[in-house]
Design a protein that fits this description.
There is one protein chain. By secondary structure, this protein is of the alpha+beta class. It has one domain. The protein has 8 helices and 11 strands. The radius of gyration is 18 Å and the shape is globular. The two termini are about 25 Å apart.
């Protein structure tokens, strides 16, 4: 899988500018990191699912960003980072669709030569309006600092995400991605009000261990026709991101999920690809 390395390379650059003109690798008020993560997941998912590749090549599905989902059961509305949707019909909503190559430029994806070659070989998704029927909804969240304080909100936002997706369409695949920071120190943009940097010190690895454990409490379901509630696939990636300009690295050892763990990135992508192949053959 190429996604984690792409995320690390991309977030190593200061692509987010705050109101004072300062550049940051991560800023809590920006969704850049979420868009980068969702792009990476979709990039790997498109390579994993031959059926999705075929649907893209045949113009049957398109990719949409900031897609508003309406929960029919509760009236809740939520904007999802990135979706795979049926292409527009005569009566579908007129929502803009994009190709992965266009989104890579928009979000300043740092792709190496291998990534670029793979992207060039993938089918080009149709652009223009995207349809109203969402097949896959990707939601990415990050816990970079103040881990323990952020846990209730992180849990609630993820739960709201899959509930809204399936309240709109029980057959859609809800895929969740969580990035957890193992760095011992962190520069929070909102705390930098003096000339000297204000450094936040984390209680590691305890902060990351507790955050990853909390993700295990998020509801999951066995598939679109199970009658259950929860994510259809959920992955956790642990990073070392100090937000001070030093390169971001992916943590592969504990407390990151092991390759045999259901929450490992690769298993998330493979599971989502399998569910797509087994669920949408009639699209």
């Amino acid at each position: 899988m190429r996604g984690p390395a792409i995320i690390a390379r991309t977030l190593s650059a200061a692509n987010v500018t705050d109101a004072r003109g300062h550049g940051w690798q991560y800023h809590s008020r920006s969704d850049h990191h979420s868009k980068v993560a969702c792009w990476a997941v979709l990039f790997d998912l498109l390579q994993t699912s031959s059926l999705m590749q075929r649907h893209v090549a045949e113009g049957k599905v398109a990719f949409g960003i900031n897609r508003r989902i309406n929960d029919w059961t509760s009236g809740r509305k939520k904007d999802l980072d990135l979706v795979v949707a049926r292409t527009a019909g005569a009566h579908d909503e007129q929502l803009q669709a994009f190709d992965l190559a266009d989104l890579a430029v928009r979000y300043h994806l740092n792709l190496d030569a291998t990534d670029q070659a793979i992207l060039a070989d993938l089918p080009t998704a149709p652009q223009g309006p995207s349809g109203s029927t969402v097949l896959v909804a990707l939601e990415a969240k990050a816990c970079m600092t103040a881990h323990i304080k952020a846990l209730p909100r992180l849990y609630d936002e993820l739960t709201s995400s899959h509930a809204t997706v399936h309240g709109d369409n029980a057959n859609a695949l809800a895929v969740g991605f969580v990035m957890v920071n193992l760095a011992e120190t962190f520069l929070s943009p909102g705390k930098q009000t003096t000339v000297d940097p204000v450094v936040t010190v984390h209680n590691q690895p305890n902060d990351t261990v507790r955050t990853v454990a909390k993700m295990h409490e998020i509801a999951r379901r066995s598939g679109p026709h199970s009658g259950q509630h929860g994510f259809d696939a959920l992955g956790v990636v642990v990073v070392d991101l100090r937000n001070d300009g030093t390169p971001v690295t992916i943590v592969t050892g504990a407390p990151a999920p092991a390759p045999t763990d259901d929450f490992h990135y690769d298993r998330m992508v493979v599971r989502a690809g399998h569910l797509y192949d087994s669920s949408f053959g009639q699209v």
